[in-house]
Write a structure and sequence with these properties.
The chain contains eight helices and ten strands. It is α/β, with parallel strands linked by helices and 255 residues long. The chain binds fructose -6-phosphate.
């Protein structure tokens, strides 16, 4: 596991975008796994900038998003479909047929999950997976519990997640209780993974994750310790507790 600590959110975002850009340059038909939420917004902004400056071409890139709220339509401004198009897809030259996001309105959810896994498999699996992390250690919407599922599935969102994501809704009651998420197996099969963490509310979970030498279904992100090619990229605020524990003080590990 490679650990990188950026001075601030902007620096973290440009490092992440540069890693993604390099991978696209090496493999123009890269299969890119994407996350939503606050953390990757700056990365998407940077990727859009690189595209607009003529430095990056998404015409052959294939994307698979990690998750979508169950019951929200793609046109709902709070859906992850809407987020992805407004923050990223509408601003780059990705082909619509190369974009994949689980359908939160699917009548037959099991079939939708099967179809999604099949599409990922047909594309050859994920080359590069971008991840955020929940305050409870979730990745995608693989929430802490007694077991973790490997394939795409409908999941109940944890109370911590509902609380954290209420900021995107008018009230906590409006936050969907369920989501379709890729499973941990799909994430772990990605050839390369970047885990982003930003802000002080992530400091506790990052310290817990990076201090541990054990994996547990209670901290789904801990399974990343078993992966061969993970870059953990945090800003200083998210790294704060980890750094204090590590150095007995508050030093900074540069990037
Ligand atoms: C989103 C996703 C989630 C988020 C996580 C952090 O597609 O899969 O795991 O990455 O909840 O969200 P933010 O970045 O909003 O703190």
């Amino acid at each position: 596991m490679k650990i990188m600590i950026a001075g601030d959110y902007q620096e973290m975002s440009s490092i992440a975008a540069n890693i993604i850009a390099e991978e696209i340059k090496k493999k123009p038909d890269l299969v890119l796994g994407l996350a939503t939420g606050s953390t990757p917004l700056g990365t998407y902004r940077e990727l859009v900038r690189m595209y607009k400056e003529g430095k990056l071409d998404f015409s052959r890139v294939i994307t698979f998003n990690l998750d979508e709220y169950y019951g929200l339509s793609p046109t709902d401004p709070r859906s992850y479909h809407y987020y992805m198009y407004t923050n990223f897809f509408n601003h780059v030259n990705i082909k619509p047929e190369n974009i994949h996001i689980p359908d939160g309105m699917a009548k037959d959810v099991e079939e939708e999950c099967r179809r999604y896994d099949e599409q990922i498999q047909k594309a050859g699996g994920i080359d590069l997976q971008l991840l955020g992390i929940g305050v409870n250690g979730h990745i995608g919407f693989n929430e802490p519990g007694d077991e973790l599922l490997t394939n795409t599935h409908l999941t109940n969102l944890a109370p911590d997640t509902i609380k954290a994501n209420a900021r995107f809704f008018e009230s906590i009651d409006e936050v969907p209780r369920k989501a379709i998420t890729v499973g941990l197996g799909t994430i772990m099969k990605a050839r390369k993974i970047i885990l982003l963490a930003s802000g002080r509310e992530k400091a506790k979970i990052m310290a817990e994750l990076l201090d541990e030498d054990a994996v547990s279904t209670k901290v789904p992100a801990s399974f990343l310790l078993l992966h061969r090619d993970v870059t953990v990229l945090m800003d200083k605020e998210a790294a704060n507790i980890y750094l204090k524990k590590k150095d007995g003080c508050c030093g900074t590990v540069g990037v």
